[in-house]
Amino acid sequence: VEMMNDNPDVKIFLKGHTDNMGNRTLNLALSNARVKAVKNYLIQHGISGSRVSGKGFGGTWPIASNDTEETRQLNRRVEFEVVRD
């Protein structure tokens, strides 16, 4: 929120992720729900929704092994990318 307020011309793209446990379709839906939750949070804190877009990727882009609970937690995340016009 602070970064967005400090840079009113910046737009961001949210990327939602999950671990690879369970059903792929449900994980994709969960990753999209994570994106929506972050976008809603930003909007509730005064950021215009037109500045925020995103997509869920399910468990397709892990940053850590999915072998243990501790490392699977690292894969359950939302990242943001600054979008330049």
Portion in helices? 25-40%
Average pLDDT confidence is 96
The sequence of SSEs as H and E is: HEHEHE
Beta-strand portion reads 15-25%
Count of helix runs = 3
The neighbouring-strand order within the major sheet is 2-1-3
Structural class: alpha+beta
Main pleated-sheet profile: 3 strands, mixed
The gyration radius over C-alpha positions equals 14 Å
Question: How many extended strands?
Answer: 3
Oligomeric assembly:
single chain
Globular, elongated, flat, extended or rod-shaped: what is the shape? elongated
Unreliable segments (pLDDT under 50, ≥5 consecutive)?
A: none
Our measurement of the CA-to-CA distance between the termini, rounded to an integer number of angstroms, reads: 20 Å
Fold topology:
Elements: H1 2-6, E1 11-16, H2 24-44, E2 52-56, H3 69-75, E3 78-83
Parallel strand pairs: 1-2
Antiparallel strand pairs: 1-3
Walk me through what this model shows.
It contains three helices and three strands. The protein has a three-stranded mixed beta sheet. The chain is of the alpha+beta class and 85 residues long. The mean pLDDT is 96. The chain is 39% helix and 20% strand. Helix 2 links the parallel strand 1 and strand 2 (52-56).
Key descriptive features of the protein:
85 residues; alpha+beta; 3 helices; 39% helix
